[in-house]
Write a structure and sequence with these properties.
1 helix, mainly beta, 7-stranded mixed β-sheet, 10% helix, 35% strand, 103 residues, single chain
């Protein structure tokens, strides 16, 4: 995935359907990321953030893109990993999802 967007490392992250939601969702376009940001020019190191909606995901490269930022996904939160395990195996989609993704 090539981009000119700023790249930010996201640790202790999870995927939610919106900023005011208490539930988790799968890592796919339209959902939001929450987590601790590192390497952002205007955000204090390790500050907990909510992103804008995800527009593209590359699970193999562990990258999620929003309109303005490219997030390198570090370790997911303990709670999100537990939720993911409870979901069990899901139908596998393409490695890259979103507008402009290769078919």
């Amino acid at each position: 995935m090539q981009t000119q967007k700023p790249s930010v490392k996201l640790e202790d992250w999870a995927v939610v359907p919106g900023p005011n939601s208490g539930s988790y969702q799968a890592l796919r376009p339209g959902n939001f990321l929450v987590g601790r940001a590192f390497g952002h020019q205007r955000i204090e190191k390790g500050k907990f953030i909510f992103t804008s909606p995800i527009v593209r995901v590359d699970t193999q490269q562990r990258i999620a893109e929003t309109k303005n930022t490219c997030y390198s996904l570090g370790e997911a939160s303990y709670e999100y990993k537990a939720w993911s395990r409870e979901q069990g195996p899901r139908e596998q989609g393409p490695r890259e999802q979103g507008p402009g993704a290769a078919a």
